[in-house]
Amino acid sequence: MAGARSSIPIVALTASASSEVRFRCMEAGMNDFLSKPMEVPAVRLALERWCLGSAGMTVAPGVSEPA
Questions:
Q1: pTM, to two decimals
Q2: How far apart are CA 13 and CA 17, in angstroms?
Q3: Dihedral sign, CA of 25, 13, 42, 30?
Q4: Is 38 in contact with 13 (CB distance < 8 Å)?
Q5: What is the tens place of the pLDDT at every residue in 3-62?
Q6: Residue 9 contacts by C-beta under 8 Å, 6 or more apart in sequence?
Q7: Which residues contact 55 (CB under 8 A, 6 or more apart)?
Q8: 63 near 32, Cβ under 8 Å?
Q9: Beta-carbon contacts of residue 63 (< 8 Å; ≥ 6 apart)
Q10: How far apart are CA 26 and CA 28, in angstroms?
Q11: CB distance 50 to 31 below 8 Å
């Protein structure tokens, strides 16, 4: 079952943009991170990063940088 779960990307959405909260989200196993207020371009990039061509669900370059 863990193999099936690992192929589903999880994008954290939080009201805090602090590096500490970002670190905790990534440490908890999130694949990416967005903070509020959400902006359409940032959401679109996250969706493209994790959903388009997601056969392998590999990490895209720049994921560790906030959008």
A1: 0.57
A2: 10
A3: positive
A4: yes
A5: 444 578 888 998 888 889 989 998 998 889 898 888 899 888 888 888 875 544 455 455
A6: 31, 32, 50, 51, 54, 57
A7: none
A8: yes
A9: 31, 32, 49
A10: 5
A11: yes
- Six-digit token pair at 16? 């805090």
Tally of CB atoms within 10 A around 35: 19
User: Which fold, 2-51?
Assistant: Rossmann fold (3.40.50)
- What is the token pair recorded at 32? 């990416």
Reading the block at residue 67, the tokens are: 């959008």
User: How many residues are there in the chain?
Assistant: 67
CB 10 within 8 A of CB 21: no
Closest CA to 64 of 49, 54, 53: 49
Q: Which residue is listed with tokens 């909260």?
A: 21
